[in-house]
Amino acid sequence: MSTTYISKANVDLWKLTVTLEWTGLEAAMQPKGPFDCTPGRGIAGINCDDAATSRLANTNCTPKGEWKVGGHQRAPICLLSRSRMGNSI
Fold first, then answer.
1. How confident is the model at residue 37 (pLDDT cuts 50, 70, 90)?
2. Cross-strand bridge partners of residue 36
3. Over the stretch 12-32, which tens digit does the pLDDT of each residue have?
4. Average confidence (pLDDT) over 70-75
């Protein structure tokens, strides 16, 4: 049995979109996007455009760079929760 999973998530911080790449037998049937996204809120005086700075803890930046998918698991892969700002993943 082959598992279908997200192999890459492409985040475009200029267009504020996410597109997904899938791997597996049912990859062609999965939603690819683009999906809307919101970048990290940042902190005044912190340069979130700098890739190294964006990956530091407590900057509230959206991390920039590329990472390999470290693994996957069967559902639930992500859980949705309610917050004062709406739904978040």
1. confident
2. 17
3. 878 989 999 999 999 999 999
4. 62
- Structural tokens at position 2: 């082959």
Query: In this structure, what DSSP letter does residue 80 have?
Result: -
- How do 86-88 and 5-12 pair as beta strands? unpaired
Find tokens 């049912």 and name the residue: 26
In the numeric block, the tokens 């900057």 are attached to 59
Give the 3-state secondary structure of residue 37.
coil
The confidence band for 79, taking pLDDT boundaries of 50, 70 and 90, is very low
Q: How far apart are CA 22 and CA 60, in angstroms?
A: 28
Q: How far is CA 61 from CA 39, 49, 51, in A?
A: 7, 9, 10
Q: Where are the domains of the chain?
A: 5-88
- Count of helix runs (H) and strand runs (E) in the chain: 1, 5
